Amino acid sequence: MSGWSLALLRIYALVTRHAYLMRKSWPRLLELAYWPSMQMILWGFISQFFSIHSSWVAQAPGMLIGAVLLWDILFRGQLGVSLAFFEEMYSRNLGHLFASPLRPPEMIVAMLAISTLRTLIGVGGAALLAIPLYHYSLFKLGLPLLAFFINLIVMGWAIGLMVSALVMRFGLGAEGFAWAAIFAVAPVSGVYYPVSALPSWLQPVAAALPASHVFEGMRAVMIEGIFRMDLLANAVLLNLLYLSAGVAVFLWTFRRARQLGLLLQIGE
């Protein structure tokens, strides 16, 4: 066979290998269609809202910057938990960790602490940079900012624990959910537009998310100068439910993974 034929065979072999990998991994297949669809849905809602309310943002300078920074708290909170867990998977260290006296609840607390540190560094730096660049300070929100931060990072923790549990059960083929899961709630969280801008059938879904109450509360503070305690209470109650579910799912999946002997093979 000629050199070109052999080269084509090698290329074909590598492409076939990845085709089989995708065919056997539904998370990978889902991820291929997920990102274009999610971008289309999110920016579709944004375009529809601003085409009707073009002067809405002018009511409060820095509205979009504040929304982006608060959204990043949620994103970094979730990613901080997931990446802390993935680091142990990449190094195939889970089996070694749990051969030590470390208990699963202690690992959860450690991951939440790591997530908080990563979020403070990442979002704090961006918030400080926005002051000289855009003359906007997120810290002008005052005490409501602390309430917003806590509720958003707790929701991020809950999603991060569930994603970590999913990857612990199905392996690194499900790793893409660490990036995809948080953006699944973006269109219905009212980050850049009020929940009322959503179709009526999606508004109950938004009401079930702590983030939507936080972003509605942010707009109330920035536009009306009012800190709505009802929205804060809704976010807190929902977060208690979400975080409890995240911890329970992680602990249950850990016990199941230990029974199946997955902790020693999970880096494969």
Question: Could you explain how this protein is built, in words?
Answer:
Helices cover 74% and strands 0% of the residues. The protein has 268 residues and is an all-alpha fold. The protein has one domain. Helix 9 packs antiparallel against helix 10. The longest helix has 32 residues, at 229-260.
List the keywords.
mainly alpha; 10 helices; 268 residues
Helices and strands in order:
Layout: H1 3-23, H2 26-52, H3 63-90, H4 94-97, H5 104-134, H6 143-170, H7 177-184, H8 203-207, H9 210-224, H10 229-260
User: What is the oligomeric state here?
Assistant: single chain
Low-confidence stretches: none
Q: Can you tell me the overall shape?
A: globular
Tally of domains: 1
Average pLDDT, rounded to a whole number, is 82
Distance between the termini: 36 Å
Provide the structure class. mainly alpha
Order of helices and strands: HHHHHHHHHH
Annotation field: number of helices: 10
How does the major sheet shape up? none
| Residue share in helix | over 70%
The Rg value, from CA coordinates, equals 21 Å
Number of strands: 0
Share of residues in strands:
under 5%
